[in-house]
Structures are given as structure tokens and as C-alpha cells.
Amino acid sequence: MSAGKRWIIGAAAVAVAAAGAFFVMGGATAAPESTFVLLDGTKKTTADMKGKVTLVNFWATSCTTCIAEMPKMVSTYEKYRARGYQHMAVAMSYDPPSYVVNYAQTRKLPFDVAIDNTGAVARAWGEVQLTPTSFIVNKKGEIVKRYVGEPNFPEMQQLIEKLLAES
After folding, report:
1. What is the distance of C-alpha 3 from the center of its chain?
2. pTM given for the model
3. Could you tell me the maximum CA-CA distance found in the chain, to the nearest angstrom?
């Protein structure tokens, strides 16, 4: 491997490690101000999340990992919703709205589903391009954890429990 390639790989590894360290070390940051357009046409904003623990999940009907994790997302929501937990499933801009509506209706998704038609929400949340990408937002409206790919659900549920217990 040439020195140039090693440098590029090394720089990429440092960038990934730095990004991971940000979330691991508890560097909570305010969730971006966003407006989510739900399937029924109503809107919710980031401000509506305050006081609740929220999972913001960027997904697509064409994403096999997203579809595979969805039953676990539903069971996590069902387990904690009575305690102030909410879930916002944000379909990516390239996902045909009719596919999203069909999926949400046929699977009877019990949580809010939004369509990011313009891609503005994905851009605001850190240029999200890979699905699934999920964010845990605490009651103060701060992002405390980001998952790229399917989360470790037992670990994620422990974090949700901890955040729900905080005042």
C-alpha cells in the first residue's frame, strides 16, 4: 500500500473515531430544529420532543436492515410509550411516499411516521445518508446517542430506561 493510501485510511479512521468519541463521551448536543411532516399531513417539531425521550429513526422501505429492525422498533415503542417515550420514523426523501404509506398501514406502525420529501430533515440531523440511522434524544432535547445500522436493542433499551428515569 502506498504512503498516500495509508495516510487517507489513517485520516478516515481518526475522523470516524473522533465522531464516535463525541457520542460515547456524552457530548450531548441539542437536536436540530426540524419540522416533521407526518403521513396524515400534520406536523411535529423538535420542540414537541422536549420532556420526552425520543428515538428519531431515518429509514427507507428499500433498506433491508430497516425493514428487519422495524418489529424491534415497534416492540421497543410499545414497551416504553406509557412512560413518555416516543418514536419518530423519518422516511428518506428518495423513498416513494406511496411505499411509505403502504408499509406503515399494512404493518400498523403505532408511532409517528414522517416523510422527508425535500431531504431537509436528514441534512439538519448531520447529513444522514445511510439507513438506518437513529438518534436517541433526551427529555432536554439533546442527542445523547447515534446509531448507524441496526442498534444493539438490549443496550439501547437500557439507555432509554436510564433516560426515562431522569427528571
Report:
1. 37
2. 0.83
3. 56
The amino acid present at 160, given as its one-letter code, is I
Extract the C-alpha cell encoding 159.
439507555
**In sequence order, what are the beta bridge partners of 66?**
none
For the residues of 22-58, what is the DSSP string, one character each? Answer: HHHTT--EEPPP-EEEBTTS-EEEGGGGTTSEEEEEE
Cell digits for 78? 410499545
* pLDDT of amino acid 27: 66
Owner of C-alpha cell 422516511: 91
- Separation of alpha carbons 145 and 107, rounded Å: 27
pLDDT at 21 over 70: no
Q: What is the rounded CA–CA span in Å between residue 131 and residue 123?
A: 13
CA distances from 51 to 44, 83, 162 (A): 14, 11, 14
